[in-house]
Design a protein that fits this description.
This protein has 293 residues and is α/β, with parallel strands linked by helices. It is built from ten helices and eleven strands. The structure holds guanine. Guanine binds next to strand 4.
Length: 293
């Protein structure tokens, strides 16, 4: 029987640990606070931002969302970030991506002070991760590592094949897992759109991480029996048989892969809850560091 890696249960375990840390901070007069900025009215982004706020509330943290219209200029957005950068009550700043096309994402992400960059997207934090230094690790890669370790599939010594080289998942995950550290020290292969014969690589993997954003692309014939498969995808596909007319599927073809894999993370209920929990963890870390010096 295939093991279903329950991201919700693992993230509940981490949240219970975080509650104690938050209580300790509160006793020192610090309540961790995350402020999100949402530009425009994309329903998926709005829903992610709401989930992040709710997660803060449930843990006894503070949260705030600044909704800005689609027409917001780059300098207006920069001014908002500047204000939050100087507000000592705000420990984490998150600008929800994607941004409208007239705003330069790099300029915006670079304006968030590295010590409040709980997404881990600032070049200073990216550099620290690449160098193996303590930093804010981007939430999805950090969640995947925790998920593997806590479900009994420690990456140490394993061959991990990551499919997808995005700045948010594939690239930072590859760096995180190849460092000579606990819960890492893996042999990492990164496949991408330039890879010829993807199956040649995925069939050699002990662990596959599917993070290319293409529905149900990793199929049963691409995995070795006994492989562990982490599905980062969350693709909305039309399905008239569902009440809402659509449903979410991952980047993995669950039905065929689950027949061969030893363990698989489902969509939904896999990586998604882990990502939000790691955002909470990064915000608590930012709050703890903010008053320590
Ligand atoms: N949009 C999709 N994923 C993310 C994320 O991890 N952080 C931010 N800020 N925006 C996103």
């Amino acid at each position: 029987m295939v093991q279903i890696i329950d991201g919700k249960a693992i993230s509940d375990e981490i949240k219970a640990e975080l509650k104690n840390e938050i209580e300790e901070l509160r006793q020192r007069g610090i309540t961790p606070k995350l402020t999100t900025i949402l530009v425009g009215d994309d329903p998926a982004s709005a829903s992610y931002v709401r989930m992040k706020g709710k997660a803060c509330d449930r843990l006894g943290m503070l949260s705030d969302n600044i909704p800005l219209p689609e027409s917001t200029s780059q300098s207006e957005l920069l001014a908002q970030i500047e204000k939050l950068a100087h507000d000592p009550a705000v420990h984490g700043i998150l600008v929800q991506l994607p941004l409208p096309k007239h705003i330069n994402e790099t300029i915006i992400l670079n304006a968030i002070p590295p010590e409040k960059d709980v997404d881990g997207f600032h070049p200073i934090n990216k550099g620290r991760l690449a160098a193996g230094e303590d930093t804010f690790v981007p939430c999805t890669p950090a969640g995947i590592q925790e998920m593997l370790v806590r479900s009994g599939h420690n990456p140490e010594g394993k061959h991990i094949v990551i499919v997808g080289r995005s700045q948010i998942v594939g690239m930072p995950l590859a760096q995180l897992l190849m460092h000579k550290k606990k819960g890492a020290n893996a042999t990492v292969t990164v496949c991408h759109t330039g890879t010829r014969d993807m199956g040649f690589f995925t069939r050699q993997a002990d662990i596959i991480v599917a993070a290319m954003g293409r529905p149900e692309t990793i199929t049963g014939e691409m995995v070795r029996p006994g492989c562990v498969v982490i599905d980062v995808g969350s693709n909305r596909i039309d399905d008239p048989e569902c009440e809402k007319g659509y449903r979410f599927v991952g980047d993995v073809h669950f039905e065929s892969v689950s027949k061969k894999a030893a363990a698989i993370s489902p969509v939904p209920g896999g990586v998604g809850p882990m990502t939000i929990t790691m955002l909470m963890k990064n915000t608590v870390k930012a709050a703890g560091a903010s008053h320590s010096g």
